[in-house]
Amino acid sequence: MRSTPADAGASTAAAAAATPADASTAPNDSLNTPQMRRILTSSFLGSAIEFYDFMLYATASAVVFSKVFFADLDPAMATFASFGTLAAGYVARPLGGIVFGHFGDRLGRKGVLVTTMLMMGLATTAIGLLPTYAQVGGIAPLLLVVLRLVQGFAVGGEWGGAMLIALEHAPGGKRGFAASFANLGAPAGSLLSASILALFSLLPDDAFFSWGWRVPFLLSIVLVLIGMFVRLKVVESPLFQKFNAEAEDRRVPIVEVFTKSWRNLVLGIMVAMTQLTISGIASVWAVSYAVAQGADKTGVLNSKAFAAIALFLCTIIAARLSDRFGRKPVIAFGIIAAIAFAYPLLLLVESGTTVGFTVAVMVGQGIQGIILGPLAAFLAELFPTSVRFTGSSVAFQGASAIGAGFTPIIASALVASAGIGLLGGVWIGVLVLCLVALFIASEGRKKDLASI
Hints:
Residues 39-445 form the Major facilitator superfamily (MFS) profile domain. One of its GO terms (molecular function) is symporter activity. By secondary structure, the protein is mainly α. The chain has helices spanning 5-16, 20-23, 34-63, 65-68, 75-106, 110-127, 133-136, 139-167, 175-200, 205-212, 214-218, 220-231, 238-246, 253-260, 262-292, 297-325, 327-350, 354-380, 388-405, 407-418, 420-440. The protein has one domain: Growth Hormone, Chain: A.
């Protein structure tokens, strides 16, 4: 039902008569306020926990699941099947972005954040309790796929909510840095998951593959309880509150994205794919391939943990630079660096040495951080408040499904059929297309979020 002018006026008056608590949430010129610190902590901590869960699975799929859940297959097919379950979670992420984006755009950002964290934590803990193929046969990998789909569905809503709650509270000149806290959770979660899994990989193989790999998954429930404590204290986005009070006709968000913002959606997906293909190759496929080529398993996992530090630092620096110079110049620099380093990265991984893998993944994830830093703000600034959650989530999660979900499988197939050369050529071709999409997209650093 369309609101009358009187209704709209009453809504506006009610918004203007906000309580002091509401007023304290309005963006100001500083990120150093009690409420803003709480928001940024929540954004970072929540994403770190979610990506701890998600990347723990990604790492375990490279070194554990082929032996635990696909033991009846030959090693090459077992690895392929294990990466297939990894891809299932990425496929579920756009669906999570659509569903949780709908509720985030219609009801608010905060409720989605709490729901997705709880859902992810329970699914990850359940993975740590799964029976193996040797114990129950084919039902084991089936249950693994189901829980992976739940993980993907949850993280599909988490990123958009965590990013927007920070971005929509932040002052205009610091939006890139504030939004990056949701992305900073990814390297932090990756570092934590790789470190804990590397620690337990020091166990004898019998112990590691029977129970050691389970402990990092079971620890997720403890992290979730800590994250929920912080996240429940966060207040709703003031920009959404204002929009919600004044909105009259409101379409289904995903319909509005596909009909009015489809061009920006396509461009956003293509730009986001750049850093996600780096993630799929350097953080997942390369782990399995390097170990198969003779690199030490524990050394590879330790290298991956150190690479997460490079990703973290480069993400912070790039986000800061994007607030000064714009999102597009910083992202463009990262994509060009990725193109230049594509073949060296693959050759270093192919060397089969821990040192070669370490250099490859450190530089690769550093380049990924350059793109990742401005990416959250770049995507959010493509869409209006009415569909910002849905649009930015579907763009990022759609790119995740294509760029990271299928990259390990595609890389494995290309290398098996034609070697490293073909993989490098295909990867560079994709990066070039994404660079073109970046130049076509608009720059959002100076845009007013309320008027997009």
